[in-house]
Design brief:
Number of helices: 14
Strand order of the largest sheet: 7-6-5-8-10-9
Radius of gyration: 18 Å
Strand content: 15-25%
CATH superfamily of the largest domain: Exopolyphosphatase. Domain 2
Distance between the termini: 23 Å
Shape: globular
Structural class: alpha/beta
Order of helices and strands: EEHHEHHEHEEEHHHEHHEHHHEH
Largest sheet: 6 strands, mixed
Number of strands: 10
Length: about 290
């Protein structure tokens, strides 16, 4: 769950008043049951309500609450969205996969400030991964896969097994017009990629200005994988910039990163700290 409270500064700009994120594992157990579990749903609802209260404390004139893959795919997702809306005092917008892809692209393009002719963005989440192909800043094709780090962590224990599973899923579910040709820029966004970037940079505290635009070569990602694999979940959680709630899902996330690079033929990727959250903000401010 991510929070962003801003003050508009004219045009497309804004000044950040407060931001935060909390790993609530909403997708926990979803792959097995098809439903949002009572415990992850309750802790997620509490965080969203707290974030809504934080925004109100800043005097926010407009509040937007957006839910993505876990809520739209769960059989009880509609009930959950209504319950969260009642608790937070504001309705929850559940976005379909194509809308999520457009929002991610808007956030990435705003953050990086470039419009390369051939761009591929991927966004790794707890319940899904989105792939977005764009040209000149215009979305050409997108796909949302029910392939998230939480379900992978629940299903697999051995890295070779998770990598093989991810490889097969990408090969069959990512359309050819998205996977190829090799993009001029492969851009990764969301927690897995930004955490690997922070580890690669050796940051003691997460610094979005350092992470934004950082280029990760394939061998840098592989070095971090080799560093993390021998560690226990507790040892990973003790590393700087690796949240405890991400300690058991970071390795499956890296599998998606490396297999995406293999699929597309890209030897490096650009990291974007901006993504879905900033895309929602751009849409809210600019339409």
């Amino acid at each position: 769950m991510r929070l962003l409270v801003v003050e508009t500064a004219g045009g497309r700009g804004w000044r950040i008043l407060e931001e935060a994120q909390t790993v609530t594992r909403l997708a926990e157990g979803l792959a097995e049951t098809g439903r949002l579990g009572e415990v992850p749903a309750a802790r997620t609802a509490r965080v969203v309500a707290q974030y809504a209260a934080t925004a109100a404390g800043h005097g926010a004139e407009k509040l937007v609450i957006v839910a993505t893959s876990a809520v739209r795919e769960a059989r009880n997702g509609g009930d959950f969205a209504r319950q969260v809306g009642a608790l937070a005092g504001h309705p929850v917008r559940v976005v379909p996969g194509d809308a999520e892809a457009r929002l991610v692209l808007r956030g990435v393009m705003h953050g990086l400030g470039v419009t390369p002719s051939n761009l591929l963005v991927f966004d790794i989440g707890g319940g899904s991964t989105e792939f977005i192909r764009a040209s000149g800043g215009v979305l050409q094709a997108a796909v949302s896969l029910r392939l998230g780090v939480v379900q992978l962590a629940e299903r697999f224990r051995d890295y070779a097994d998770v990598a093989q599973h991810v490889r097969a899923r990408l090969a069959t579910e990512v359309p050819g017009q998205i996977a190829r040709p090799t993009p001029d820029h492969l851009v990764g966004t969301a927690g897995t990629v930004t955490t690997v970037a922070a580890l690669d940079l050796g940051l003691e505290r997460y610094d979005p200005s350092r992470v934004q635009g950082h280029r990760l070569a394939r061998d840098a990602v592989e070095r971090q994988l080799a560093r993390l694999l021998p560690l226990s979940v507790a040892e990973r959680a003790a590393l700087p910039c690796l949240e405890p709630g991400r300690a058991d899902v970071i390795v499956p996330g890296i599998a998606i990163v490396l297999e995406t690079m293999t699929l597309t033929g890209a030897e490096s990727l650009v990291v974007s700290d901006d993504g879905l959250r900033e895309g929602i903000l751009v849409e809210t401010l600019c339409g």
